[in-house]
Structure formats: C-alpha cells, structure tokens
Design brief:
This protein has one domain (6-79). It is 65% helix and 0% strand. It contains three helices and no strands. It has helices at residues 6-26, 36-57, 64-75. The longest helix has 22 residues, at 36-57. The radius of gyration is 20 Å and the shape is elongated. The N and C termini lie far apart (44 Å).
Length: 85
C-alpha cells in the first residue's frame, strides 16, 4: 500500500463505487430513492461541493504543507509576482 498516495486510493475507491452503482442500476437491482428532480439536485450539489473544494485547495496554499511550498517557491524565485503581470 505504500506505493500509492492517499489521493490515488480515494479516487480508486470512488471509481469502484461508481462502477458498482452503474452495474446495479443498469440491471435494475438498485435504485436511488427519491424523484428524478431530487436525485438531480443532490448529485448537482455534491458535484458543485467537490469541484469548489478542489478548486479552492488547488494551489491556494491553505494547508501547512501548502504554506511551506509557497515559502520555498518564493525563496527560489519560482512564483510569478504581481510586477510580472
């Protein structure tokens, strides 16, 4: 398990769940409760939350690790400064 990072494991598990759900739904063995409109609203909300979270965390240096990365990038002159615009 040490050869894989946490993100790879999580993405693989989510993909497996999605594939199992698709298989079960395709054969009529499992149906998500609620009306089609409710299902669409829930799925849309989940998608929006996940997308917004990823977009916010990606290169925004909000974690301790991210802040350290930002310091190193600045120190090495690898960050675009406002004067470069």
């Amino acid at each position: 398990m040490n050869n894989f990072d946490k993100g790879t494991i999580i993405r693989t598990i989510v993909l497996a769940i999605a594939l199992i759900n698709q298989f079960l739904t395709g054969f009529g063995l499992y149906k998500i409760p609620g009306t089609e409109d409710e299902q669409t609203a829930v799925i849309s909300s989940i998608f929006t939350f996940i997308t917004a979270s990823i977009a916010w965390f990606k290169n925004n240096y909000v974690t301790a690790k991210g802040k350290k990365q930002k310091e190193i990038l600045k120190k090495e002159g690898l960050m675009k400064s406002k004067s470069d615009d």
